[in-house]
Design brief:
Elements: E1 3-6, E2 9-22, H1 23-27, H2 32-35, E3 46-58, E4 61-65, H3 75-81, H4 89-95, E5 105-107, H5 113-116, E6 120-123, E7 126-129, E8 135-139, H6 140-147, H7 159-167, E9 171-174, E10 178-179, E11 184-188, E12 197-202, E13 207-210, H8 233-249, E14 253-255, E15 264-270, E16 273-277
Parallel strand pairs: 4-5, 5-8, 8-9, 13-14
Antiparallel strand pairs: 1-2, 2-3, 3-4, 6-7, 10-11, 11-12, 12-13, 14-15, 15-16
The structure holds zinc ion (ZN).
Zinc ion (ZN) is lined by residues 110, 112, 192, 213, 229.
Amino acid sequence: MHRLQLDGLEVFHLCASRFRLDGGTMFGVVPRPLWEKVLPPDERNRVELSCNCLLVRQGKNLTLIDTGCGSTFTPREQDIFAFDTSHTLSRALAEAGFAPEQVTRVLLTHLHFDHAGGALHFEGGRLRPLFTQATYLVQRGEWEDALQGHSIMKSSYRPQALLPLEESGQLRLLDGDTPLDGHLSTFVTGGHTAHHQGIMIRTDTHTLVYPGELVPTRAHLRLHWNMAYDMFPYQTLTRKRDFLARAAVQHWIVAWDHDPALPWNRLEASGGQFTPVGVEI
Ligand SMILES: [Zn+2]
């Protein structure tokens, strides 16, 4: 269990899922001989990834950032994505010492199944929100795109599996960059989806940023190493370049949503390259 104390805030890393995606798709235009040295693929060309979620405790408020894949998959999907069922959001939450009903807010970067799937679970044969006391926040444009299946990958959005969030009255839609309280805010990145958002956590002496799919793993620190899943690839490249430069100069802690080995790093910049370094508080 990785944990950071940022002044009065506590941040827990929760590994909500372990699964595999096609390595070629994870690295877009990058040839396999290059990416396979960084993330070695299995015999089906898949690389192992984590769904790294963050849990932020501020007094009695518990904010969860992203929810992983959930566990509502068919046997065929189990085979395709090779889910490691020993990792679930509920289990990671329990290991951190919390129950789902203690979570007061869920922030979703976007609504692809590997980020929003864990927001719901089956109860009495029906899909219901897992976090009964929480408000779920996502960009309005992302919600609309998800319901319309507006994606280059047919299986990325599962509209029927999202509707219970609206039916329960727990959904709150955001319009653009949004300060949430004194410490947390969201910022729209675009790139991966039109309304994909990152999360920023600021305290007196620290800044931690969760850029979501803008920089999913440390391997994506290279400027041209971007996912074929991105709706707007050139926007990913330019926004990522600007984001990484700021993160290095301002000494931010950057959390990776899919890195299989580490939840967060700081960055050092040199000659246009970014190197991850350890986080010492
Ligand atoms: Zn995505």
